[in-house]
Design brief:
Structural class: alpha+beta
Distance between the termini: 37 Å
Largest sheet: 10 strands, antiparallel
Shape: elongated
Oligomer: single chain
Length: about 600
């Protein structure tokens, strides 16, 4: 190859590919992709060139022959050979249909150009460091010396698992299908299994922030809600809430995971677990809005939604079908629509742009607000309730051959190769921790359980009227009517089947207020819920959507459910105001 051609690549060499090493490959690394092609008679074959974009690569490890393989006949080399294994998860088109799914493909190149393992390993390490630094965004031009000499810091995350969330498989999911992939992406982790309601909030309230790159939550949306509210009830809440939060679907709805995957262009209906973990490994962080919510239970901080009426009823009343996973919402929806309720109430909101009342619907002003009585309080466990699990050992070399989904992080080379990168830094899980929130090796000392001083000038106390005067460029609008459902939304999804707010973005500074008024037939409502799977419900004449800064719901019907981020609140008035971008999430 000419010197001029060499200058266009960060790295350029020729290696066999394990385990079939009879063919030599010309391997090149650019600032955005890995390119390799077989070499025949000294020239690489153009029509067999494979390009792997960095978007599909999560990490690279160096390896050597394991002790058990040194005394066997190896076709790919001897004890002096070194290896660098590149972990890729490209999107593969399914045999049937046009849908694509990610599938793991580990590319292991053999370095055997020198006579000693030490020299070959130096070459393997140079390739690994250059690739990993490029994946972390450290590539600046074609000057490679800094890329091959400085190893990026491994990132240590605190993992919180609620083993009883959803179908009760969160701990198994993490240990068997997530740990190895995190290791491939150079994440270290410490695992804490929550064992009582509020445990995650306690941990977040006392977390020593500088010890962690972020917090990874393996559960449903309830544990995310706990962590956020724990971080927001610290005196240093403005710094604490900037701690990056990641999530792995372990619950029933998994709305946050669905919203993250949807935003990144990954599929939601299939392979949600694989897609969610894949995005975590990309080391990308996004700002996220929160909403300060006042209920009769007090102030809380919401990342997902506030719902009243049909959607809230389905969420709470389907608890008894939790063992069905996400299917519980379908069963609950059918049961509730067959016995449809309507709710009288006042809905007030501060729109971002002028609001025009639809001609067919009128605002009623002849009713007076009454104090709700005889509230419904289903006797179900809190969403974050957990029980102490039986400790299970964790291995990064686990192979998942279950039918529950595609394998994650499978180490198919474990029989004859030893991962040098893992040997240098312990990526395995530490002892499973079931502390009740006061592990002194993880948490800071002192009282951190104080209310955050968060200003919400658009809100007045719930027992006082809203401020109807013009404020920050808009007027409050109040509608009193019979409602089927009201939902204040700030993520795209409520579960994999409900693309409830298709126009929402993590940090758009908007509460997407959606409501449906009576009358509407059961058939029309079923059709409406069906179209929510694709987000086309917002085009229905039965659905009103308004972009708002703040809202208040005042139920006049004395019975019902108020649900914030999937958590049942005391029934009564509820209000919220957008807080632009205080939090951060791992989005890929």
């Amino acid at each position: 190859m000419a010197a001029g051609d060499m200058a266009t690549y960060l790295m350029d060499s020729r290696f066999p590919l394990h385990p079939k090493t009879s063919v030599i490959y010309h391997v090149k690394l650019t600032g955005s992709s890995l390119i390799y092609a077989p070499v025949i008679k000294g020239n690489h074959v153009q029509n067999k060139t494979v390009t792997v974009n960095f978007d599909d690569i999560i990490g690279c490890h160096c390896m050597k022959n394991s002790d058990k393989s040194k005394n066997t006949s190896l076709s790919h080399g001897d004890a002096t050979s070194a290896y660098f294994c590149i972990y890729t998860y490209p999107q593969i088109k399914k045999i049937l249909g046009n849908k694509k799914t990610r599938k793991r493909n580990a590319l292991t190149f053999v370095v055997n150009t020198s006579e000693t393992l030490e020299e070959n390993m130096k070459i393997a390490v140079r390739w690994r460091l250059t690739l990993v630094n490029c994946l972390r965004g450290q590539h600046t031009g074609l000057e490679t010396e800094s890329l091959v000499t400085q190893a990026p810091a491994s990132r240590r995350v605190l993992v919180l698992v609620n083993p009883h969330s959803g179908p009760g498989k969160a701990l198994k999911i993490f240990q068997e299908r997530v740990v190895a992939l995190l290791a491939e992406a150079d994440y270290q982790h410490h695992l804490i299994v929550t064992d009582h309601s509020g445990h995650a909030k306690e941990i977040a309230q006392t977390l020593e922030l500088d010890k962690w790159y972020g917090v990874l939550i393996v559960s449903g949306d309830g544990l995310i809600y706990e962590v956020i509210n724990g971080l927001m009830t610290r005196p240093d809440w403005q710094e604490a809430i900037k701690t990056p939060l990641g999530c792995v679907p372990g619950g029933s709805g998994n709305a946050m995971c669905c919203s993250i995957c949807h935003s990144a262009g990954e599929t939601v209906k299939e392979n949600l677990l694989l897609n969610s973990v894949f995005l975590l490994t990309k080391h990308k962080i996004s700002d996220m809005d929160l909403v300060a919510v006042d209920t009769l239970d007090g102030r809380a901080y919401s990342f997902l939604s506030v719902v009243w009426g049909l959607i809230a009823d389905i969420d709470i009343e389907s608890e008894k079908y939790r063992y069905l996973g996400n299917a519980r919402f379908t069963v609950g929806a059918i049961a509730r629509i067959l016995n449809l309720r309507t709710y009288r109430g006042k809905l007030s909101f501060l729109p971002i742009t002028d609001y025009k009342e639809p001609p067919r619907l009128l605002i009623h002003s002849n009713s007076q607000l009454t104090t709700p009585t005889n509230e419904i309080r289903p006797k179900n466990l809190p969403r974050t309730m957990s029980a102490p699990p039986t400790p299970v050992s964790v291995s990064v070399n686990h192979t998942d051959q279950s039918e529950s989904g595609p394998e994650l992080g499978t180490q198919e080379l474990a029989n004859d190769l030893e991962d040098v990168t893992l040997a240098q830094v312990d990526y395995k899980d530490e002892d499973i921790d079931t502390t009740k929130g006061q592990d002194t090796t993880l948490l800071a000392s002192g009282d951190h359980c104080q209310a955050a001083d968060v200003k919400t000038p658009l809100l007045t106390p719930l027992n006082q009227p809203i401020n109807t005067e013009e404020d920050q460029g808009g007027h409050w609008v109040t509608i009193e009517d019979d409602f089927i459902t009201v939902a204040a939304l700030y993520q795209t999804h409520l579960n994999p089947d409900l693309l409830a707010a298709p126009l929402s973005h993590f940090n758009d500074g908007v509460i997407h207020l959606m409501f449906v008024r009576s009358p509407i037939s059961k058939g029309q409502l079923i059709n409406l819920l069906t179209t929510m799977e694709t987000g086309k419900h917002i085009d229905s004449p039965h659905v009103e959507t308004v972009a708002v800064k703040a809202f208040r719901i005042e139920p006049l019907t004395p019975r019902g459910n108020i649900v914030v981020d999937g958590e049942l609140m005391k029934y009564g008035p509820v209000q919220g105001q957008i807080l632009p971008s205080p939090a951060r999430i791992m989005t890929g």
